[in-house]
Amino acid sequence: xxxxxxxxxxxxxxxxxxxxxxxxxxxxxxxxxxxxxxxxxxxxxxxxxxxxxxxxxxxxxxxxxxxxxxxxxxxxxxxxxxxxxxxxxxxxxxxxxxxxxxxxxxxxxxxxxxxxxxxxxxxxxxxxxxxxxxxxxxxxxxxxxxxxxxxxxxxxxxxxxxxxxxxxxxxxxxxxxxxxxxxxxxxxxxxxxxxxxxxxxxxxxxxxxxxxxxxxxxxxxxxxxxxxxxxxxxxxxxxxxxxxxxxxxxxxxxxxxxxxxxxx
Length: 264
What we know:
This protein is α/β, with parallel strands linked by helices. The protein contains eleven helices and ten strands.
């Protein structure tokens, strides 16, 4: 039986907040097949658990969120075109599982956040980091090409010129610059980042889950090219005024009390 401390990804739930911990501290949480599969399985469990409202993803050590893909595994996973295809399909499914999760996700970033680890953090809705965080996506050091899918997530946050600088130059970005260019959502002192991350996760858990999931849907549509409402978005807006959360939020406001939302 596998000892919990040896599992590549740990999933825990407390107070409606799920935490996925990348758990290879001796390898600075380098992303191997087992971690990619663990992220995929963990997201499926979070999606299925109605009591979970928010997902936090973090590394098992303050030295690293993740050092990136485990290069030592490359000779095996790229041994044949078939094995390479299967490996990259697994990574794509793991990224999409985080990005497409209906529930909000926050990457809690300390230390190194490189390569595939950085790409995983980009799949989260928010990135809360401390001042030890350092970011890099270095395909130019390996002679490889990042997919359009992965490149777009970086582009959407930092724009074309900074995307080129980061990917062409294998540039390492310190925490302050990462916050300034939009790669990081919020920046905290090392002693505060976990507390602040979970405090905001708790705040999200207290608010309307219907609204929060609708925000994710709307922003996703904008990201992929929508510029105006259509029948689907109009229906989503209209459905809010028929929902239990709207009635509770309205009544709580009028009665000057804290709302107790029930949508899950």
